[in-house]
Amino acid sequence: MGVSERVDPEGSLRVVFSGLQARAAFSGGVLLGSDYIYALPLEGRERQLRENTSHPAFEWGAVHELIFEAGQLVEARDCSKAMAQARVHLLGEQLEPGTPAWQAELTRLMSQTFCMDYA
What we know:
Elements: E1 4-7, E2 15-18, E3 28-36, H1 44-52, E4 60-69, E5 72-78, H2 80-92, H3 100-113
Antiparallel strand pairs: 1-2, 3-4, 4-5
């Protein structure tokens, strides 16, 4: 039994692995996203948000955070609602995207949404 991968026929952004039998002693966090929301061209403030936000979770409608310790799943969190609220907040915010104040607000929102301390 070997490991094989294939691109999911419903979209080129998803790769499906099968035949995985080995446990990895991974400790840390993984973000999983689905429902890519920026497939269409953006204008105005939404375009600024995308250009100035390096966090990949902003680009997915559904976002889940999984936390592992030595290969065991210890926590699974649905962060989709918090990410949607963060997008709305930053789109309506009076701060100019890309400025230090805006980056500070982005950092605050991300620290409230994700564990981010996987030590």
